[in-house]
Amino acid sequence: MIDRYHLRYFLAVVDTGNFSRAAAACNVAQPTLSVGIARLEASLGRTLFNRTNRRVALTEAGAGLLAHARAIESGFAAAERAVTGAAAAPLLRLGVLTTIPRHAIERWLAARSGDRVELVEGNERDLRARLARGRIDAALTILRDGDDRGAGQHLLTEGYALAIGSTHPLAGRASLSAEEIAHEPMIVRRHCEMLSETSRFFTARGVRPFFPARTTSDDRALSHVRARLGITVMPESFHADGVARVPLADFDASRDVGLVFAAHAPPDAALVTGLREALTYSRSSRT
């Protein structure tokens, strides 16, 4: 027999990534949670987690149980609200790629209504892993060729351009070639999904710039650019006071940004529409 608390323990381990954090989330001691998981596995006759010293991962049986466990827990919560008369307060766990502009997320958050939101930032690989394990409901990330058309909703296609301090002598140019900026210091955005392609583009043209800063923060990269510490290559939707965006000649790379939904979460049309508007506004505005 499966009790509700067994499923709550199971979901807590999935959502937090380990038994210690799951026990804290459930307000029980870790041995108590471990016993509950063991009883759930015994009742099902299947191992649900692969346990190592560093991580806990779902087995095939655990992944199969996950969607059902979420549906059952959601049903329990709905029944409790119906009896008590409490208003529903669903939680949207949204993964956000670190290279999505901050002001796009701000605009979406300001316009949204209804759901409580938990934002989980990460790189593309991390967000994909969280989706697969059911730790987030959807991810605002880059769409890839293998994405299922039902689960992946396209929001925006954009290219990349140079970011240059607005007082820089080259800031007013209509475009710049790699050779024209060969002697310009360049800020490295270490988290950029196009970092390898950008490096190859410049290397192929004999450009090996000096790197005065390496950062995983786009806000900091823009600050460095504004202060004329260096220039950088960023998606077109990034804009900031004191920063000019200038096309980089012959650099034709682009990215498809979209929403990818987890297996347990059906596509949400309102979420798709709201984020598409925020991203489109972000690309077209100058802040």
How would you briefly describe this protein structure?
Belongs to the LysR transcriptional regulatory family. This protein has helices at residues 4-16, 19-26, 30-44, 60-84, 102-111, 124-132, 195-204, 218-226, 269-284; strands at residues 49-51, 56-58, 91-97, 116-122, 138-142, 152-165, 187-189, 213-215, 232-235, 243-246, 254-261. The protein is an alpha/beta fold and 287 residues long.
Give an overview in words.
The chain is α/β, with parallel strands linked by helices. The chain has three domains: 4-84, Arc Repressor Mutant, subunit A (Orthogonal Bundle), CATH 1.10.10; 91-156 and 255-284, Periplasmic binding protein-like II (D-Maltodextrin-Binding Protein, domain 2); 159-253, 3-Layer(aba) Sandwich (D-Maltodextrin-Binding Protein, domain 2). Helices cover 40% and strands 21% of the residues. It has nine helices and eleven strands. The chain has helices at 4-16, 19-26, 30-44, 60-84, 102-111, 124-132, 195-204, 218-226, 269-284; strands at 49-51, 56-58, 91-97, 116-122, 138-142, 152-165, 187-189, 213-215, 232-235, 243-246, 254-261. Strands 3, 4, 5, 6, 9, 10 and 11 form a seven-stranded mixed beta sheet that branches. The protein has a two-stranded antiparallel sheet with strand order 1-2. β7 (187-189), α7 (195-204) and β8 (213-215) form a beta-alpha-beta unit. The longest helix has 25 residues, at 60-84. It is elongated, with a radius of gyration of 23 Å. The protein starts with a helix and ends with a helix. 30% of the residues are buried.
